[in-house]
Specification:
Elements: E1 15-24, E2 42-51, H1 63-66, E3 87-88, E4 94-95, E5 116-125, H2 147-165, H3 169-172, H4 192-200, E6 215-216, H5 219-248
């Protein structure tokens, strides 16, 4: 399990969405911690700011299952029960991604009065490796949501075998087996926002704070967005991993 090897670099490995957040006021410099970094690889996605809700301590329960970060069969799809005071209006989201400096500080101050919540989203390698495998064949798992990652896995891990076998290959090698799936979640890919917009019909960015546990608009809208997020992961997994692997084979 499942599809990986030493030829998969962190950028083409299974990716996880990660985030950090701070609450800030108009006074002082806003500095955002870098989210979790694995395998010495991290890339920013977006930095979003919004007026801190009245109930700023509430977070969407069971968030791991609702974002596929914790794999669970049939996660709930009903409206999320949340206090009205915890809700954040999606049209109040301010995209300050371009204001992020290299040291994690923002070239932006929240408007006054009141506090603002600022969330920094990024992605990193899950760090998951293939198993069981000989020591020389152990490496990172490829990004299951990316055709580019599958191309890398095929061209570096499978095509050399076919090239070596030559004309004998069609008789000596007649199938490829993905032997069960036990390598955990894959919750991001570099083209995710583009693919989400194409498949779901709207830009997910204004709803991103839900991925960090914030209620967007209300409990029903939050549940609907998180379902769309999981549906997009599932579609990309089916199209760019299983179906594309079968096509290459």
């Amino acid at each position: 399990s499942s599809s990986g090897g030493p030829w998969i670099d962190p950028a083409h490995s299974m990716q996880l969405l990660v985030s950090s957040e701070v609450t800030a006021s108009a006074a002082g410099v806003v500095r955002l911690p870098q989210p979790e970094k694995r395998r010495d690889y991290y890339q920013d996605i977006a930095v979003l700011a919004f007026p801190a809700p009245g109930d700023s301590s509430f977070r969407i329960p069971n968030l791991g299952a609702l974002t596929s970060a914790a794999l669970q069969y049939n996660p709930p799809t009903a409206a999320i029960e949340a206090p009205a005071a915890a809700a954040v209006a999606h049209d109040k989201i301010v995209d300050v991604t371009g204001k992020l400096r290299s040291d994690g500080s923002l070239d932006w101050n929240p408007p006054s009065p009141g506090n603002w919540t600022i969330v920094r989203f990024g992605h990193t390698s899950s760090g998951k490796t293939n198993h069981p495998a000989s020591e020389s064949g152990i490496g990172l798992e490829c990004d299951k949501l990316s055709r580019e990652a599958m191309d890398l896995h095929w061209n570096k891990g499978i095509q050399p075998i076919l090239d070596y076998l030559g004309p004998v290959g069609t008789h000596a090698l007649n199938n490829l087996l993905v032997d069960s799936y036990e390598v955990g979640p894959n919750t991001w890919t570099p083209k995710f926002r583009e693919e989400f917009t194409k498949r779901r019909g709207y830009d997910p960015l204004p709803y991103f704070p839900a991925l960090a546990g914030h209620v967007m608009d209300d409990g029903e809208m939050s549940a609907r967005f998180l379902w769309d997020y999981r549906r997009t992961i599932a579609d990309l997994f089916a199209d760019n991993y299983y179906a594309y692997f079968a096509e290459l084979a």
